Amino acid sequence: MKSVKKSDVKIAVLRIEGTNCEQESLDAFKRLGANPEFVHLKQLLHLDCTKNEKRDIFNYQCIMIPGGFSAGDYIRAGAIFAARIKSKLGKDLEEFVKQEYPVLGVCNGFQVLTELGLLPGIKEIMTSVPDACLYINDSNRYECRPTFLKHENNIKCIFTRKIPKDDILLIPSAHAEGKLLFTLDKQEEYLKKLEENDQIVFRYINKNGEYTGYPWNPNGSISNLAGICNYIGNVFGMMPHPERSFYRHQHPNWVQNGLDNNIGDGIAIFESALDYICKRF
Amino acid sequence: MFEAKVTIGLKKGISDPEGTNTLKALKLLGFDNVVEAKTTRTIDLLIDSKNESDVKKSVEQMCQRLLTNPVVHTYEIKVVKK
């Protein structure tokens, strides 16, 4: 069986104007011994860049779309980033996903994946128009605080395979548009399919592990959904920021609970992806 | 040349937190007679074309591919010759 060394795993942390979580995202992969690099979308689109700056999506084994406010959240959060990707790179990205390379979207990255039609990805790899929306929070406010997440995926999502099912994680959320919605008359149908396909990854819960509303569910997301993957399990989007809880000392409760080798709750997401890539490619 | 006015609204049943907050603030300012506040967004496009039906078709495509998300939005297109 072929396998790739962790230090050879190349990850593209994509950016355009307005992305702002790329440094922590890159650091997360780097600290684990992988080989991530910042890639401006223009480098993949081969626009306004030198020969040396040009990149190909298939140079990488993983694409990460980090959080931020890409293109100023104009039109809708993530819509412009998605449109630019689709303009020239849509087919390649579809092929990338088809070949089962992992794609991660955090916060604004999740919004981009939704606008691209890569998520929820129930039947098709990429839909021509969005099949879901990350809509304005019910509170109409930017919600920024640690959130409790329950890991509900069995085995499908390659980004959470190192996290035991039913584990509770504390990962910070920071967004104004995180309410996951499907077409109103199809909400139940979509939820059922997501359950059946093992595509539900994280749900917001309260400190006692119960599904409750605001403020524990910061945005009013349907069925408390915080993170979902596509039907293959290699495209994963979540609103909370795992790259911001890489170390235990980034958790608000580390004084009470101890540093525990300084391993934060978010680290397992990056580790799971690297583990998958090393074994699979 | 044509001017296309795209008005983007929300589908029935989709909450409008901005509208709700606007209503609340208007009431606080003493405008008690306001019953409802709905928000829409308008995008004006100037399009170089000779044919009105081509313009309509193309703006329809723009709505589907970028300007709206069909999960939550409705849209209305008005085209005027300039």
How would you explain this protein's 3D organization?
The complex is a heterodimer of chains A (281) and B (82). Chain A has 281 residues and is of the alpha/beta class. Chain A has one domain (6-280): Rossmann fold. Chain A is built from seven helices and eleven strands. Chain A has helices at 22-31, 41-45, 79-98, 108-116, 187-196, 254-257, 267-280; strands spanning 10-15, 35-40, 62-65, 103-106, 133-136, 143-151, 168-175, 177-181, 200-205, 225-229, 235-238. The longest helix of chain A has 20 residues, at 79-98. Chain A starts with 9 loop residues before the first strand and ends with a helix. Chain B contains two helices and three strands. Chain B has helices spanning 17-28, 52-67, and strands spanning 2-10, 41-47, 73-81. The model of chain B has no long low-confidence stretch (mean pLDDT 96). Chains A and B meet through helix 3 and strand 5 of A and helix 1 and helix 2 of B.
In quaternary terms, these chains amount to heterodimer
- What portion of the residues of chain B fall into strands of 2 or more residues? 25-35%
- How large is the radius of gyration of chain A? 17 Å
Q: Any idea what the CATH superfamily of chain B is called?
A: Phosphoribosylformylglycinamidine synthase subunit PurS
First-last Cα distance of chain A: 9 Å
Q: Rg of chain B from C-alpha positions?
A: 16 Å
Give the full name of the CATH homologous superfamily of chain A.
Class I glutamine amidotransferase (GATase) domain
Number of domains of chain B: 1
N-end to C-end Cα span of chain B:
5 Å
CATH class of chain B: Alpha Beta
Task: Look at the helices and sheets of chain A and give the structural class.
Answer: alpha/beta
Name of the CATH architecture of chain A:
3-Layer(aba) Sandwich
Number of helices of chain B: 2
Count up the domains of chain A: 1
If classified by CATH, what would the architecture of chain B be?
2-Layer Sandwich
Name the biggest interface.
A-B, 23 and 16 residues
The count of DSSP E runs of length 2 or more, i.e. the number of strands of chain A, is 11
User: Looking at CATH, which topology of chain A would you report?
Assistant: Rossmann fold
Low-confidence stretches of chain A: none
